Amino acid sequence: MKVVLCYPATLPGQKPNYGLQPMGILYIAAVLDQNGIDVEVIDADIEGLTIKEMVDRILSTSPDLVGFSIMTPQLKSALAVSAALKEARPSLPIVLGGAHICSTFDDTFSLSDKFDFAVFGEGEETMMEIVKKMENGSFPDCLEGVCGVIYRNGNGKIIKNPPRSWITNLDSLPSLNYDMLDITRYRIPTMVGNYVIAMMISRGCPFKCAFCDAPTTTGKKIRFRSPEKAVEDIRHNYDKYGARSFSFRDSTFSANRKWVFDFCEAIIKSGMKISWRCGTRVNCVDDELLKIMKQAGCYTMNFGVESGHPDILKTLRKGIKIKEIEHAHDLARKHGIRTYSTFLVGSPGETEETMRATIDLAKKIRPNLAMFFITIAYPGTVLYEEALRDGLIKPRWWVDEEKDSDSHSAFAKRWGWTADGALKIPGFDTELWQKRATRSFYFNPRFIWDTIIFTLKNPYFLRHLFNLGLELIPFYKIPLPWKKKRKEIDLSIYSQCPSEPTVDYGSCEEISSGDG
Ligand code: B12
Ligand code: SF4
């Protein structure tokens, strides 16, 4: 049986300069491969494939089962490709999985009948069980009772099976095989080296930030791969590909202090000279911890600052104080760890005054890079429920949102810079303030000076500056006579389906019920 797993292009036909390996499908592929199943992975996003190219590429592999991994912005692209695949091969089974499905469950069935089933929660064990059952039984009956699956049965009824328990022992998972992709394509502006390897060493997040989907999609209880296994994985990539640059995408990398110490000690002991990036909370770091992280190769740290105003931090349930934000940045600077800090613009209650506080704080803490993202209420978050209740968003805004690939650069779309799904805050212009904050931070003489000095010492950074410039300057808006407006996806991909939309996405508890 041949399984093809695809990470669809967010903006079909637009190739990004930056990106990371899609780990969700790489994990599923690793488990299938370990069990002798013929599996192929296609990252259509990094390749910037068009809808037609995605369809052709998938069909050329003669698959028996096709799976798409989607975050909310990739839904339409996945449904458009599915519709075209079904037209070419009506009996080809298609499955959806990923963060969007983990937070909306059966909702997508009410938008399209061009896919057969969806997997919510972790996909490794579920996909393995499905593939075995498909090899021995008739489809879709074989999906009956498989935990973590939602499917349309022979009578067209949508059946939601019980959730699957989270995988408690992450050491039971095989290492990822990056050979399934061309690793040299992957890089990010915050890291050194020609390419970077993405890894996820823990899963889950115990915190409760109102805007974040991580606890919903990966569980509220944090689970770890052991430091030994994690270092073994790094060693494998270090020896096999000569990889020196790693991006750890764990939700809160330093949530467990002891684990970080053990991990850093194991890296130091291994003698590997690597650079890595991780993301964490400002109140999950301290002097001693940052010291050992730096010794182990921590190069950049992403702090979720979100706002410079205590009221907004409170509304967002961030659970951090302004003092802690300042202290964490001071400590990182002391240890020579670069900081990349992320802020939100247009949260509930946002005003010009709260935004000024955010801009002032951003300049005061002097991160090496900063991003001002527009606050988006993703399904499955507390923010979604509250914004809906307060009339700040439309229900299922991601369905109505017109995706016009000419109106945003791929970078803006992929890295959450766009206003699709922005909250409608009375009297506050979110896009204007996003631009203002960005300009104010990057045109600050102190930032320019710090960056010039850094670039002189680290000439590799020039390439990032050049690439970022290319991504951010809106060349795509220039109306060249030979350029056709690329509007591949329109709302006609939604077919009339028998099922009702799921208005209440349920709480995180629904999927966490299998939690240990
Ligand atoms: C890495 C990452 C990224 C990378 C993605 C690179 C890539 N090529 O994958 C980058 C930085 C580019 C990115 C961008 C964005 N991200 Co992001 N990202 C993450 C992060 C940190 C880890 C995701 C991951 O790789 N997990 C590891 C794998 C193993 O887990 P997984 O993906 O959940 O996959 C498992 C299951 O979902 C399932 N599964 C997944 N795919 C499939 C497919 C099939 C067929 C099946 C059966 C099962 C299945 O099985 C997998 C294994 O168990 C999560 C937060 C977190 N800590 O989880 C946010 C997260 C997924 N991102 C999120 C968001 C909002 C975004 C952005 C929209 C905006 C932004 N600023 O972050 C953009 C959109 C990108 C796009 N494609 O359009 C949200 C998702 C919200 C949603 N409803 O979709 C999350 C949860 C973070 C959050 N704060 O809420 N992101
Ligand atoms: S923002 Fe960070 S700390 Fe907060 S819930 Fe999400 S992953 Fe956890």
Point out poorly predicted stretches.
512-516
Helix percent reads: 25-40%
**pLDDT average, as an integer?**
91
CATH H-level superfamily title of the largest domain: tm_1862 like domain
* Major pleated sheet: 7 strands, mixed
Q: How many separate domains make up the residues?
A: 2
Say which molecules are bound, naming each kind only once.
cobalamin, iron/sulfur cluster
CATH fold call of the largest domain? pyruvate-formate lyase- activating enzyme
- Indicate the proportion of strand residues: 5-15%
- Please give the radius of gyration in angstroms: 22 Å
CATH-level-2 architecture of the largest domain:
Alpha-Beta Horseshoe
Shape: globular
| Global structural class | alpha/beta
What's the total helix number? 20
* Strand order in the sheet with the most strands: 2-1-3-4-5-6-7
CATH class of the largest domain: Alpha Beta
Tell me the total number of β-strands.
15
Q: State the separation between the terminal residues, measured CA to CA.
A: 33 Å
